[in-house]
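User: I'll paste a sequence; please echo it back and then give the predicted structure.

Assistant: Echoing your sequence first, then the prediction.
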Amino acid sequence: MSRNWGTLVMYTLITLAVFYVGYQMVTNPSSFLSSIIMMIGIAVLVYGAIYFLFLRNRVGAGAGRNSNEMKKYKQAVKQSKQKYKSPAPVKSKAKPTPKFSSNTKQKKPKRKNAPNLRVIEGNKSKGKNRASF
């Protein structure tokens, strides 16, 4: 029974608040807007203070942002980059080799493994009428 009573009180307070907001908007809109803006500003300041003081260090902790697993992951990424890094070309002061002239033909490299494709013959005269779909 107490739960129904609490619900009734809550709905009554919400209804009175809605009527008061409507009354303020009709009778004194400038004061209403300034009070709404001030309430939003205070709420943002309070949320920002709570976030920076308490929640900032906890956000992402479940994902392991500062945990041992993340450190191990970063170390593995670093090792992988070192392992698969292509060696940097050595720059020397020797003359660069002359480029091929336009008269010489450059051969395209042949593929080592040609794709194994075959044509499947079918009845090509029967075509679906796609406009009827």
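The longest helix spans residues 29-55. The helical segments are 2-27, 29-55, 68-84.
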